[in-house]
Amino acid sequence: MEKYTYLLLLAGSIAIPLFRSFEPRIFFRRNWPALFAGILVMMAVFIPWDIVFTREGIWSFNHDYVTGIFLFGLPVEEWLFFVVISYCIVFTYEVLKYFFPAFVFPRTVMLLTLLLGVLLISIALFNTDRTYTFVVMLLGGFLALLQPLIRSHEKWLSHFFLTYLVILIPFFIVNGVLTAMPVVIYNNAENLGIRLFTIPLEDTVYLLGMMFLVQMVYEKTATSR
């Protein structure tokens, strides 16, 4: 059963969101086309990144906890990770929008996003010798600074950050298992060496970058339908 560890974690993660996607109040099923458009764009960035980082030894996967099916050097579970986690995140976003429609603070969230972008890019520039830190902070910072330009703070950014804070709870559980066993093994020479429990700090920004890319396409596609 050990080899199904990663796969079972993903199945457990998506079970409730998938089941509840047909619930009539939110009926998330109708948003699938926009969601999968966002996932495809995000994967076009993150899969090549993942492949290169795995090839360069910046991180690796413990073969004891994956099924052994690999595509371009990545376990099939890693491909599914991007789909499953994105699905859960956007489902959570829609649920929070439904139950907390008044949670909209455009000026505050714009300022916080600008500060976050500057902070992340500053960390990247001070850590050009740590590949994971540099790349993830630079991308996260760029995407954060992009938000005021596309005026997302006026539309969806408040609920986006609320979703991020909520999703950190299951993130620490699932990613905590992946990094504690470990299923995913990190080369600490390529990151800051700061762990939140067993999770590299950089992973929280990795999650944020995924969310930004999916959400931007999701909102654009849903609006233009």
Q: Helical residue percent? A: 55-70%
How many discrete domains?
1
Q: In total, how many beta strands?
A: 6
Q: CA-to-CA gap between the ends?
A: 44 Å
How are strands sequenced across the largest beta sheet? Answer: 1-4
Count the DSSP helices: 7
Helix/strand/pairing class, anyone? mainly alpha
What share of the residues does DSSP label as strand, in percent?
5-15%
| Main beta-sheet strand count, sense and barrel state | 2 strands, antiparallel
Give the topology string: H per helix, E per strand. Answer: HHEEEHHHHEEEH
Oligomer: single chain
Gross geometry: globular
Report the uncertain regions: none
> Could you tell me the radius of gyration in angstroms?
17 Å
Mean pLDDT across all amino acids = 95
Describe the protein.
Helices cover 68% and strands 6% of the residues. The chain has 225 residues and is mainly alpha-helical. The chain has one domain (2-218). Strands 1-4 form a two-stranded antiparallel ribbon. A hairpin with a 2-residue loop joins β2 and β3. The longest helix is centred in the first third of the chain and has 24 residues, at 32-55. The radius of gyration is 17 Å and the shape is globular. The model has no long low-confidence stretch (mean pLDDT 95).
